[in-house]
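pinging the channel bc i need a second pair of eyes. not urgent but kinda urgent?? the chain im working w is below, pasted from the shared doc
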Amino acid sequence: MKRVFVLLPLLLIGFSLTSFDYFKPAPEPIIYPQIIPSNLEIGNALKQALQQGTGKSADQLSAVNGFFGNAAVKILFPPEAKKVEKTLRGMGMNKLCDNVILSLNRAAEDAAKEAKPIFIDAIKKMTIQDVSGILLGQQDAATQYFKRTTTAALAVKFKPVIKASLDKVGATKYYGTAAGEYNKLPFVKHLNPDITDYATQKTIDGLFVEIAQEELKIRQNLPAARSTPLLQKVFNFADKKSGN
């Protein structure tokens, strides 16, 4: 009996100690401060990303079949000339129409080689407000920025390059011949044989299509697109700010 009375207090003490440990509150989780990039880092990262995206786009489109082999940007007859193409093909002039399409795309591929310095110049002129608006903006904010600020300048700078390229690969000749053949037909609305403006705009449009794809890759946190620690830091911060 004495042994029972001796052991009982010991058991109660042991139970109390274990109970105290059991109900002891869990330690607070360690919260590390978020690393917020500086304005300089944000600006440098965005410009780095845009140079990466525009450069890759220009390289892809300036390669052989960069335009011709890409359904998203391939240049076809102008919309107002679709009837011309249909009429000429119906007259057995398939080869002439095919030559027009091929030469238009070869001219665009040739002109795309000149795109890099034009976009780099536009990137260098970006303001802090531009950078912030693009970083925290829509998925295509950078592409829309380029469209808004560089389309007119690109057209002016591209046009002589496009014209020379069209002449070199024969597009001017082929399209002029196609338009000339069509214009000989009775009761048709004559078609402008100069296709330079159309080819210039389609080349610019194709660049924007590719740039938009590259921009989306960077924003979607693809490892190959966020290829530097600075890009990862800044765009990860942007993801958190936008709730992605």
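so Residues 1-23, 29-33 have pLDDT under 50 and may be disordered. and The radius of gyration is 32 Å. — does that match what u expected or am i reading it wrong
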